[in-house]
Amino acid sequence: MLAVVVHEPGGPEALRVEERPIPDARPGWVLVRVRAFGLNRSELITRAGGSGDAVRFPRVLGIECVGEVVEASGSDLRPGQRILAAMGGMGRDYDGGYEQYALLPASQVIPVDSTLGWPELGAIPESFGTAWGTLDELGLREGQLLLVHGGSSSVGMAAITIAKDRGLVVLATTRQEAKRAALQAAGADYPIVVDGDPAPLVRELLPGGVDGLCELVGPGAMIEALNALAPGGRTCITGYLEGDWNTKAAEAEAERLDVQPRHFGSGVINRDSYGGVFQQIVQAVQDGRYRVNLDRVFPMSEIADAHRYMEENRAAGKVVVLPPED
User: Fold this and answer.
1) In the chain, where are the structural domains located?
2) Fold topology of 2-124+292-322
3) Strand, helix or coil at 52?
4) Rounded CA gap, 202 and 204, in Å?
5) CATH fold label, 126-266
6) H or E segment at 162?
7) 185 CB contacts (<8 Å, ≥6 apart)?
8) What is the tens place of the pLDDT at every residue in 303-314?
9) What tens digit of pLDDT does each residue of 252-300 get?
């Protein structure tokens, strides 16, 4: 089989497509034929060495994938069944989704009934699972106002489409004018182009502020964005696009402003907790209620170019990679 292997940290050129033996199945693990995998910022960070001692090389990256069961000894999963998988140490503690065949813990392999194409299904796991969990943390009601800070990211676009289906009024930010149309297509009521503090523009549109903040840029950016919230509002930090993970100052500022600070970590995603959730998400996409926002599809042979595309912030939505069929 072919796999994308990082032998030592570096730039996109560190991603090498190599021949490897198909992993041997074993109890408690599922051998999956990978049909598509989405790209994530965390993988760019790991590839560049930003995960420190938490990841040992050589490593096959990939915190998510979709495909079909090949072998699942001792499990209720059956060969040929469509699945998606995400998190649980994928691509960090053990080899992840950047390969034709992946051996994954049964806890992370989630069966789904789906008629979606592989690229569309591949755009769902991490982005939609994270967006769903973030919106549940915020707990907003129909008609309330949500600001998605970092709206053109894959999680941001997923949050927009889920929030609109739940009846929220959505404001969403991007730093690039060229991505405004993508926010509108995702369903944002107020697409905002701003490179920096979004609060003044939000207050111009809605002087009373918003009820909830989905923070995807990071804790430094959240400190400014908090001023867009009405007193008693809620914020949930989920993304760290700016590369800063220290949330203490942002949480203290939220409390000072009478805003409830919350956090969602996608490490809670597994079959037990998200099996039913992902089936709901897949069905909503098939029914046309959710928009997948698939930005671009790359073949696995162009994985380095796919990483460069993300690093250059060219994507508005999800980037998906397809392994070879044979």
Assistant:
1) 2-124+292-322, 126-266
2) Quinone Oxidoreductase; Chain A, domain 1 (3.90.180)
3) helix
4) 5
5) Quinone Oxidoreductase; Chain A, domain 1 (3.90.180)
6) helix 154-165
7) 291, 293
8) 999 999 999 999
9) 999 999 999 999 988 899 999 999 999 999 999 999 999 999 999 999 9
Structure-token pair, residue 277: 């959730």
Which of 215, 304, 209, 291 minimizes the C-alpha distance to 258? 209
Residue 279, sorted as left (phi over 0), alpha (psi -120 to 50) or beta, turns out to be alpha
Q: What are phi and psi of 277, to 5 degrees?
A: -60, -50
Cα atoms found within 13 Å of the Cα of residue 42, Cβ hemisphere only: 26
- pTM exceeds cut of 0.70: yes
CB atoms within 10 A of CB 246: 11
DSSP 133: H
HEC secondary structure over 174-230: ECCHHHHHHHHHHCCCEEEECCCCCHHHHHHHCCCCEEEEEECCCHHHHHHHHHHEE
Place of tokens 């993988």: 43
Q: How far apart are CA 131 and CA 91, in angstroms?
A: 21
Distance CA 294, CA 299 (A): 14
Query: Could you check whether the bond before residue 111 is cis, i.e. omega within 30 degrees of 0?
Result: no
CB 52: neighbour CB atoms within 10 A? 8
